[in-house]
Amino acid sequence: MSPNTILILTIIGLFAGILSGFVGVGGGVIIVPALVFFLGLTQHQAQGTSLFVLSMPVVIFAVLNYWKTGDVNWKFGLIIASTFVIGAFIGSKLSLKMSPGMVKLLFGIFLAYVSFKLITSGYTAVRSDEA
Questions:
Q1: CB atoms inside a 10 Å sphere around CB 103
Q2: C or N: which end of the chain has fewer Cβ atoms within 10 Å?
Q3: What's the CA gap between 102 and 40, in Å, rounded?
């Protein structure tokens, strides 16, 4: 692995980790597109790599910070985590049956929709804060 690749991977990891701790996202939103665009992985390779990262206990310190301030709903988290396992299995099977291009297209549409909703709700919240 070249030093340039190691640097890119380090930047992706730091940025995804910071964003994950800051707003709760990182894997699919940061790691997957970065691996595709900066390192040339296929959509499926990027998704598999991102899932590997998420399977590691990388978020424990961020969770501890939120837990200390009372901002972790353990009951909700346990239910989501247990059903997430089933959903991830089904989603990975579905994704691997599609072409990487189709997965990339659907993922892009999903991100565009979520981005639009976040931008409009954030704009509304900022305007109401100023009133």
A1: 20
A2: C
A3: 17
DSSP type of residue 115: H
Residue 110 resides in a domain: no
Give the Cα separation of 48 and 54 in Å (integer).
Answer: 10
What is the DSSP-derived secondary structure letter of residue 58? T
Taking only the tens place, the pLDDT of each residue in 17-66 is: 777 766 667 667 888 888 989 999 988 898 888 888 877 676 788 788 88
Sign of the dihedral through C-alpha 98, 104, 107, 109: negative
Q: What is the domain range of residue 18?
A: 3-98
Q: Is residue 106 part of a domain?
A: no
Query: Does 76 reside within a domain?
Result: yes
Alpha helix positions (H), 24-73: 32-39, 43-55, 60-68
pTM of the predicted model, to two decimals? 0.61
Domain count, the chain: 1
φ/ψ bin of 4: left (φ > 0), alpha (ψ from -120 to 50), beta (otherwise): alpha
